[in-house]
């Protein structure tokens, strides 16, 4: 079963990377109906090697690269990664695989609904799902740390869907960056 998952994730990575080069440097919005799930793709290198674009900064900051997306949003009561984030996570996994000295904190969050215990468990599932996807792309065990914060660190204050949508997330935090 694990070999099957590796083959499927490899195919997803190949498709995602082919799709990125197909669009050149144009931004492609792949948001869902909630309007917060935009992903920019482009020809940026995931290893930090120049790809011929005019961007000369750190690869994690290149707005034309999926690496610039460091927040993954989730549906209500779900730890499943939405399809529009597959290329983003493939790029981050490849970046980590190519840069063994780099590490990332995978910080899981939930909205305010549910008990504290439930929200911590859900945010942990989200963080571990993302962590597993990064490892399937080659990130080493020592490169990722999953942290579950539940509802304790909201980015949007409010008691409606527009706030809750932004709080259901995983953040990829590169401490050395």
TrEMBL record:
Residue segments, region Disordered: 39-61
Signal peptide: 1-18
SUPFAM superfamilies per UniProt: OmpA-like (SSF103088)
Membrane topology according to the record: Lipid-anchor
Annotated ranges, domain OmpA-like: 61-177
Source taxon at top rank: Bacteria
Cross-referenced PANTHER family: LIPOPROTEIN YIAD-RELATED, STATOR ELEMENT OF FLAGELLAR MOTOR COMPLEX
HAMAP family, sorted: Pal
Protein name listed in UniProt: Peptidoglycan-associated lipoprotein
Organism: Cycloclasticus pugetii
Gene, per the UniProt record: pal
